[in-house]
């Protein structure tokens, strides 16, 4: 899937900035983000990967993700018409192997209680995925 290839490049790039990432993460029931990244200082970024104009135009739920991160980014490839993306969000150009932050997203810090709950959920989700790799029966 094209969006998954973009997510791979984004995660590889963010690892170089000491972020850890979980793809297809659910911060709450009914919401699923393409990439959630946890930084070395506890910062939380959400990155939505869009592979085409149609993919972007059909996404009416992205604004609901703003309450679940400190910074919000779009990740697209070079062929994507980036002028469609809201100017007050971050922009990452990506491919399957790497990415580059073109426009840093504005920071809107999460409330402390939500950050704590989300960080725990992130850790448990990541640990559960790792455990499933080791023992798929669980």
- Globular, elongated, flat, extended or rod-shaped: what is the shape? globular
Radius of gyration: 15 Å
The chain-level mean pLDDT equals 94
Number of strands: 6
Percentage of residues assigned to helices = 25-40%
Question: H/E series, N to C?
Answer: HEEEHEEEH
How many helical stretches?
3
Uncertain segments: none
| Beta-strand residue fraction | 25-35%
Strand line-up in the sheet with most strands = 1-2-3-4-5-6
Distance between the terminal alpha carbons, to the nearest Å?
27 Å
Q: Care to describe what's here?
A:
It is a single chain. By secondary structure, the chain is α/β, with parallel strands linked by helices. 30% of the residues lie in helices and 28% in strands. 28% of the residues are buried.
SSE blueprint and pairings:
Blueprint: H1 2-15, E1 20-28, E2 31-38, E3 44-49, H2 53-57, E4 71-76, E5 90-94, E6 99-103, H3 112-134
Parallel strand pairs: 3-4, 4-5
Antiparallel strand pairs: 1-2, 2-3, 5-6
Short description:
The protein is α/β, with parallel strands linked by helices.
Give a quick set of tags describing it.
single chain; 138 residues; alpha/beta; 6 strands; globular
């Amino acid at each position: 899937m094209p969006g998954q290839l973009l997510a791979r490049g984004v995660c590889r790039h963010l690892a170089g900035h000491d972020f850890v990432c979980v793809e297809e993460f659910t911060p709450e029931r009914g919401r699923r983000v393409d990439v959630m990244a946890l930084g070395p200082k506890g910062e939380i970024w959400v990155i939505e990967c869009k592979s085409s104009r149609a993919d972007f135009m059909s996404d009416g739920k992205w604004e609901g993700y703003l309450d679940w991160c400190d910074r919000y980014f779009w990740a697209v490839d070079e062929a994507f018409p980036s002028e469609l993306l809201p100017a007050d969000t971050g922009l990452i150009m990506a491919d399957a192997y790497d990415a580059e932050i073109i426009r840093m997203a504005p920071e809107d810090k999460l409330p402390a209680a939500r950050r704590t709950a989300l960080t725990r959920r992130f850790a448990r989700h990541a640990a559960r995925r790792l455990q499933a790799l080791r023992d798929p029966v669980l």
